[in-house]
Specification:
The complex is a heterotetramer of chains A (522), B (332), C (373) and D (325). Chain A has 522 residues and is of the alpha/beta class. Helices cover 34% and strands 24% of the residues of chain A. Classes of the chains: A alpha/beta (522), B mainly alpha (332), C alpha/beta (373), D mainly alpha (325). Chains B and C meet through helix 1, helix 2, helix 5, helix 11 and helix 12 of B and helix 1, strand 7, helix 7, helix 8 and helix 9 of C.
């Protein structure tokens, strides 16, 4: 990666901070039932500038860009493009204003060709209003050429492309409607190393053409490599704006993490028992590459890593959603083969998934039925559900996790994120598991609920439960874990004892930047 | 991490050929294959007369299948098409007998078709009721309505000029075949070269993305149903003008035959792919097989079994094929 | 892989169907039922009057005596919405008008479905009528509900398609099966000669009347026109486009081997005629069959079809109504030998409990215009 | 039924209860009106008799409720009825099976037919709609092909007891249906199986992540659907005393209409047997009542079609309200 001096030299000229900003948002507020997503965010992007948005999950980055790209409407605040005050009713408005967004989950038509995907919705026409395929193909080739992309052809079917190439198609689509502001949401999260390099080249080209870019990433090294300025969000609020040339990763991490480590509920030291979960050289292509770990009774092992580093995939392999290709899983020393979540549950493995609404809960169903979901087998005799027992279970759950709900009949879809998460947790604990895997246990929930869940976790550990916690929030990892494992590209790259797990060291290891060798590589 | 089990470019070029070629080529092969097989058994089968009769007698299915393909591509289904054709045939015939100008007798059914289908499309798109329910309901409404209005009285003494299907352009080119080919060609071109045509694929393939591209899935669905209604109208004309009598009842199992043609034609049920050329070829194939079964002395009662097996085979093959081709997409 | 899948399934199905094709019994014509037949004499001489058979119909229990009083009657044909049954119900209305004290409504399923027809009759039993006229979709299946009607004191008279005798009182027989068989085969022989081949287009193999007729035709042909060659029977539901396609296929399949086509239904005959016309074979392929005049006019007037065999369905409905009235009035009792049917004069009772409408009617170019049904 | 009724409160979402009460209310009103229009309508005799007629459709409607709750659909039931009827007669006449065995065989064939549907739906992931449209044609074709359209008759007297006999004045098959209703109702309402159906219909992923055997359950559901169609075929054959390949044509429409009318969301995730029963009764009595009051058969078809669309509208709007927030 180029050195800072070189970077500033290159980006100094087009850095039109003084020039009229391309985009200027001010005092953006947005809240959802149960959560305050954004409180008064303001920032601007100049032509030819790469403006990075930094922040942990749930900090409000995604909400912000969804507002800028017209998916959400802000509760208050203004959006100016070229000084014109605009109200975006629908994504199309933003598009017309020259704003294009490349989401993490690429929005493409897998059955259609590259050219069609690029020009869908604004294709060139012949005099007779027919699609002009020749023209379309020509312009596609031109676009490809302009970005030196040679392994893509206009006629290819998008469904068959690599993730990197599909992303390029999205970028081309944005350019084809000559977007002047490009929003990239974690563009590298899913990319292989060489794809990342090519993405950088493309971003630099766009820069030099005066395209403004909002670049969202967790990876500090990328921000230093690409961005001119960086705005840091925390809990929906703007905590600082820095010019990249004048800041350091330490400062940024500090901004992101803030001083919250102290006011987190710390894990109470509990006596560690015998190993409960042991994983040996577990392989599940493509995301999990020979992983080994051990979790002991009463221990909380934190699994740090960036989105796309393979943490959730590992968890789901242990849980049997995507059974392992090879490797061993031992439960309390006994080797087991987990081929489905059903078997996993039977073995006493519990998994609180990262995506609450699609994987964790049945939103249209009641609190009662969600609580008992994982326990039906023991709640029923001869297939018949013991309603009394089921209701007691749910009541206890509501009481124990202080779930705020009007009744057991309440539809969970209507509850706040925090209460929903408590129910998912309760659903699994009701099945009293031996090993609990938590995937982003406090994502997108308010601080109060967060604290409660953390207290609960250490309480459970105290009772001898083995917990494997995946989290993208450093303070959470650091605050809660007895041990921190850092995962990158499907492998463990570092392990820290609680004592020497500092934000800087762990953060660095996660991002693979300088200092990755801190901590004993495993 | 490269999520792709096979190198992106080569595999995809491979699949381009597959996409454009496979279904149509396969069907063309099947058509020829059956012809030869049966021809060996009884050479008369290959007589131009017989082949053209097969086309003449079934062109209306092919025409109806064009619209059905669009419906399925857009991610919907229509069970009411058979009844609608019955209704429109009756309207057209009654008008002709009542002495309305032929143009009216031919034109009105088309309009009725468009309106009825557009209505259904609107219910599906805006009231968000699955097309299966809407069209099942419409099926019985039309069926019952037709009989209670006409009392099933046959329509006879149709004016000579009414018989569209009997017209032979330049004395050689029979109208049904002409309409079938022209309709197919136009539809195919429209779906390939017009933005609206492509938007059908987009809506069927990925509604969310379509929306973000400024395409309104709702409007697209209504449009598709309306177009389907138009083709159903044309089909009804061919159906009505073929014989000197119009039964003014609903042709049994017609919807099933039409859906079969569309599906066997390579229209993917998962929405988003397929061509009307395929559906037309499939319609021809089905008709050919029906005739072949007689030629090789098989009870036509097996025709449904064959149809069912064909849909099944095609759908399964299609799904497996897509699963393989989209493996890359699925792993992420 | 797709191709393999498709082909395997296709070949599988073909194999299956071929097997079935081979399995079909070759000893009798397709579509003929397996009941005993009674072919008439070859010459024109009327059949030796069948040995008088004792009354074998059923009897209503505790039917109110409505002789002379107005009655309401329901007519439940195989299905509503086809020309043929529109004609029969027209005849019934005519008769009702003449009699003045009969009210008839025609109602029935839109498709010839047995269980639907049963439900209709049952509903009318509940609703309460004095008489039920029916044309059975299935002689056996309809029996229980008809017996139920009898048990409720409702008079039951069949027409066009019979049920098992004990399930109804009388059946108005449009023409004895062997009579139709003879008429059809004779006129075909007259048109194409003795040693030519012909094929049959019928509705479905399960429709009782058609099956009966085909059986009688076969028996009569074997007896009187042994050299005529039956080629094949195809099914075409009650759908005229399908009938047309099937007829066309037959023409193309057999070429000059085919000199005649029988249409066994009022749908199949015009469709066959159309097929012949379209193939420009009017002079070469004769079409003989059962049909209603309106549908046949174009072909008869153009000399493409010489003769259409059919009793007059209007008369059939008309007669059925008179029989019903006679039964209610007690004028026609078990053992009766004839019944007065208005403009049709006296109709005779044959084999036990059937009233014979008369010999089948032949429509020709001369008279076809005089009919409108 | 009572178990189901009083369990509503805790068991199913409130709105559904409302939908059913609403439906029941409409039913009562409709009956009252029809009753006034024809005194023979609201007689025990007529009602029991209607029970006889709705049994065949009713038996299939029970598993169809399950299928639709899981978010699927089964259009092939009508054809399965035809196939099973043929198999019953054929195995008895042609293979010379003793009649009881023939019945069992027919029902078995039905189950197999359903199993095949389920297998391709779960393994190959063929969309249920298309899978069952295909088998709608295939199974009917097999029935027609195998039978060559020859019907089988002359069953022994005892065989008709199911279709025409009665027990304590109640039609035999109606008792069978009642048993089926109670079993299905309890299964859906009280068992883990029933619960799983709702979960799958509402969120299949969550069902998998909670360790439910999703595919196995779906397979069972479609097999059940076929099996009940087989039973229905037995009842039908016994009622009409003959076997024809065209039996059961169009049943799928009646069944789906009843289920959807009963408040089961065609999108899956909600519905009750109780509702389905109300839907069934409503349609049957509507047909009967209209016929008795002099409405011709063709007109009743129109009414049914309209009612179907309208009821789905209600259901889906309630669905939307339910998912709000």
């Amino acid at each position: 990666m180029p050195s800072p001096q070189h970077r500033t030299a290159e980006t100094a000229s087009p850095l039109g901070v003084k020039g009229k900003p391309l985009l200027k948002v001010a005092g953006i507020e947005k809240s959802f039932p149960g959560v305050r997503a954004l409180s008064g965010v303001s920032f601007e992007v100049a032509p030819g500038e790469v403006h990075a948005l930094l922040g942990e999950n749930g900090a409000g980055k995604s909400t912000l860009i969804k507002i800028i790209s017209g998916v959400y409407r802000p509760d208050s605040g203004s959006i100016h493009v070229d000084g014109r005050d605009l109200r975006f009713e629908k994504p199309d408005d933003a598009r017309k204003a020259g704003i294009a967004t490349i989401y993490q989950e690429l929005l493409l038509f897998p059955e259609l060709t590259v050219a069609e995907n690029i020009f869908m919705g604004h294709a060139p026409r012949t005099r007779f209003g027919q699609l002009d395929w020749a023209e379309m193909r020509a312009r596609t080739e031109a676009l490809l050429g302009s970005l030196d992309i040679h392994d893509l052809a206009a006629a290819q079917i998008v469904g068959a492309l690599s993730v990197g190439n599909r992303q390029r198609v999205e970028i081309l689509r944005a350019l084809s409607q000559d977007a002047r502001l490009l929003i990239m949401d974690e563009p590298t999260a899913a990319l292989a190393e060489h794809d990342v390099k090519r993405l950088f080249e493309i971003v630099r080209r766009l820069k030099s053409r005066g395209v403004g870019i909002i670049y969202i990433s967790h990876r500090l090294d990328e921000i230093f490599a690409l961005a001119d300025r960086v705005t840091v969000l925390r809990d929906g609020a703007q905590v600082g704006m820095r010019r990249v040339a004048e800041t350091s990763s330490a400062e940024l991490v500090q901004l992101m993490v803030g001083r919250r480590i102290e006011n987190l509920f710390p894990k109470i030291a509990a006596p560690l028992g015998a190993p409960v979960l042991e994983v040996r050289d577990l392989v599940r292509r493509p995301m999990t590459k020979s992983v080994s770990l051990t979790v002991r009774a009463g221990e909380i092992v934190g699994l740090a890593g960036l989105v796309g580093s393979g943490r959730s995939e590992l968890a789901q392999t242990v849980f049997g959603v995507t059974p392992a290709d090879s490797g061993k899983i031992l439960l309390s020393g006994r080797e087991v083969r987990v081929r489905s979540p059903r078997e996993a549950r039977a073995f006493g493995i519990a998994y609180v998934p990262e995506d609450r609404s699609t994987q964790g809960l049945v939103r249209p169903m009641s609190v009662l039925h969600n609580f008992s979901l994982a326990s039906l087998s023991w709640l029923s005799r001869g297939g018949f559900i013991d309603r009394a027992a089921e209701e007691t279970l749910a009541r206890d759950g509501v009481a124990r996790f202080s779930v705020k709900t009007s009744s057991l009949g309440q539809i969970v879809g209507r509850l706040s994120g925090g209460n929903q998460q408590k129910i998912v947790l309760g659903k699994w604990l009701a099945n009293d598991p031996k090993i609990l895997i938590l995937d982003e246990p406090t994502r997108g929930i308010d601080v109060g609920a967060k604290a409660e869940i953390h207290r609960l976790m250490s309480e459970l550990a105290g009772q001898g439960l083995a917990i494997l916690m995946i989290s993208s929030e450093l303070p959470e990892v650091l605050g809660m874990s007895d041990r921190v494992l850092v995962m990158r590209e499907g492998r463990f790259v570092a392990e820290f004892a609680r004592a020497d797990a500092t934000p800087q060291a762990v953060g660095a290891a996660m991002m693979g930047g300088e200092g990755a060798e801190a901590g004993r590589p495993t | 991490m490269s999520a792709i089990p096979f190198p992106g470019v080569r595999a995809s070029e491979h699949s381009v050929i597959r996409m454009l070629g496979s279904q149509e080529a396969l069907l063309a092969l099947a058509i020829i294959g059956v012809a030869i097989l049966v021809g060996l058994d009884n050479a008369r089968f290959l007589a131009t007369r017989n082949l053209s009769d097969i086309l003449l007698g079934n062109a209306y299915v092919a025409v109806a299948a064009i619209g059905m393909s669009m419906i399925i591509i857009s991610g919907n289904i229509d069970i009411s098409v058979g009844s609608l054709i019955g209704v429109m045939a009756t309207i057209s015939g009654s008008l002709a007998v009542a002495g309305a100008p032929i143009v009216v007798a031919w034109g009105l059914p088309l309009i009725v078709g468009v309106l009825v289908m557009a209505l259904q499309g609107a219910i599906v798109a805006y009231l968000r009721i699955p097309s299966i329910v809407v069209t099942l309901g419409m099926l019985s409404i039309l069926k019952g309505g037709l009989i209670s209005v006409t009392g099933g009285k046959w329509i006879t003494d149709l004016p000579e000029s009414f018989h569209l299907a009997d017209i032979e352009l330049f004395g050689i080119l029979p109208m049904p075949v002409l309409l079938m080919t022209v309709a197919t060609a136009l539809a195919a071109i429209w779906m390939r070269y017009s933005a609206r045509g492509r938007s059908i694929y987009a809506t069927g393939g990925n509604p969310e993305a379509a929306r973000l591209c400024g395409i309104s899935p709702q409007r697209t669905v209504v449009m598709v149903f309306a177009i389907h209604g138009f083709f159903a109208g044309v089909a009804a004309l061919l159906f009505a003008t073929q014989l000197k009598v119009i039964q003014s009842t609903v042709p049994p199992n017609l919807e099933l035959t039409v859906i079969t043609a569309a599906v066997v034609g390579g229209v993917s049920i998962l929405g988003g792919v397929g061509t009307v050329v395929g559906s037309t070829l499939a319609a021809v194939l089905i008709a050919e097989i029906a005739s072949a079964l007689v030629f090789i002395n098989v009870s036509p009662y097996w025709i449904h079994a064959v149809q069912g097996a064909m849909i099944l085979a095609t759908v399964v093959a299609d799904i497996l094929r897509r699963r393989r081709r989209l493996a890359g997409a699925l792993t992420r | 892989m797709k191709l393999r899948l498709l082909t395997t399934v296709m070949t599988g199905i073909f194999g299956l169907s071929l097997a079935a094709g081979a399995a079909k019994a070759a000893d009798k014509w397709d579509g003929a039922d397996d009941l005993p037949t009674s072919p008439l004499a070859c010459d024109a001489s009327p059949a030796a009057a069948p040995s008088p058979k004792p009354y074998d119909g059923g009897q209503p229990t505790g039917a109110a005596d409505k002789s002379g009083k107005p009655i309401t009657v329901v007519d439940v044909p195989k299905l509503i919405g086809i020309g043929y049954f529109n004609a029969t119900s027209k005849g019934m209305q005519d008769a009702a008008k003449e009699l003045g004290n009969v009210k008839i409504t025609t109602d029935g399923p839109t498709e010839a479905k047995i269980d639907e027809q049963i439900k209709f009759i049952d509903n009318y039993i509940t609703r309460g009528v004095d008489g039920v006229l029916f044309a059975a979709n299935d002689p056996v299946a309809i029996a229980p509900v008809l017996k139920k009607a009898l048990s409720k004191g409702i008079h039951v008279v069949g027409y066009d398609a019979n049920s098992t005798p004990d399930a109804r009182e009388w059946f108005v027989n449009q023409a004895q099966f062997n009579g139709i068989g003879k008429a059809l085969i004779d006129s075909m022989a007259k048109e194409i000669g003795e040693d030519k081949g012909f094929a049959i287009v019928t509705s479905t193999f399960t429709t009782p009347n058609q099956a009966r007729w085909i059986a009688e035709m076969q028996a009569y042909a074997a007896k009187c026109h042994p050299k005529m060659k039956w080629l094949e029977t195809v099914e075409a539901q009650e759908d005229n486009v399908l009938s047309f396609n099937q007829a066309t296929t037959l023409i193309n399949k057999y070429g000059d081997k085919l000199s005649g086509l029988f249409g066994m239904t009022s749908v199949a005959t015009p469709a066959s005629a159309e097929a012949v016309t379209k193939a420009n074979l009017c002079s070469k392929v004769a079409v003989v069959g059962l049909a209603t005049p309106n549908a046949m006019k174009p072909y008869v007037t153009k000399d493409c079809v010489k003769s259409v065999v059919l009793w007059n369905p209007v008369d059939l409905g008309y007669a059925a109504t008179y029989v019903m009235r006679a039964v209610v009035d007690g004028k026609l009792k078990a053992g009766g030998t004839s019944v007065d049917a208005g403009k049709l004069g006296k109709l005779n009772v044959v084999n036990g409990s059937e009233i014979l409408l008369g010999s089948p009617f032949i429509f020709t170019k001369a008279n076809v215009k005089d009919f409108d049904f | 039924m009572t178990i189901l009724a009083q369990s509503e409160a805790s068991k199913v979402p409130l709105w559904l209860k409302r939908h059913e009460t609403l439906l029941a209310a409409i039913l009562v009103v409709a009956l009252a009106i029809l009753g006034l229009l024809n005194e023979r309508f609201l007689t025990l005799d007529n009602l029991l008799n209607q029970g006889r007629f709705l049994t065949e459709v009713g038996l299939i409607a029970l598993p169809m409720t399950f299928v639709i709750i899981t978010g699927g659909i089964d259009l092939s039931v009508g054809s399965i009825v035809g196939l099973c009827a043929i198999m019953l007669g054929y195995s008895w006449k042609a293979f010379g099976f003793p009649l009881p065995l023939a019945i069992a065989f027919a029902v078995g064939v039905g189950a197999l037919a359903g199993f095949v549907n389920g297998l391709l739906i779960t393994r190959v992931r063929v969309p249920p709609l298309i899978m069952t449209i295909a088998t709608l044609a295939l199974y009917r074709g097999l029935a027609e092909g195998v039978s060559q359209a020859h019907s089988v008759r002359n069953y022994p007297e005892w065989f008709f007891s199911m279709g025409q006999g009665q027990w304590l004045g109640v039609p035999t098959q109606l008792l069978l249906l009642l048993v089926g209703v109670v079993v299905a109702g309890v299964a859906l309402d009280r068992t883990t199986f029933g619960r799983a159906l709702y979960v799958i219909g509402n969120n299949e992923t969550a069902a998998r992540f909670s360790g439910l055997p999703v595919d196995a359950i779906k397979l069972v559901v479609y097999t059940l659907s076929g099996l009940m169609a087989g039973l229905s075929a037995w009842v039908l054959v016994s009622r009409v005393t003959t076997t024809r390949s065209d039996m059961g044509i169009g049943y799928e429409l009646d069944v789906i209409a009843a289920v959807v009318l009963g408040g089961t969301s065609i999108f899956g995730g909600s519905g009750t047997i109780w509702g389905t029963v109300v839907g069934l009764v409503m349609i049957q009595l509507l047909k009967n009542g209209l016929a008795l009051t002099g409405v011709k058969g063709d007109a009743t078809i129109i009414v049914i079609g309209a009612v179907l669309i309208a009821s789905t509208l209600i259901a889906s709007s309630l669905q939307a309200r339910r998912e709000g927030g």
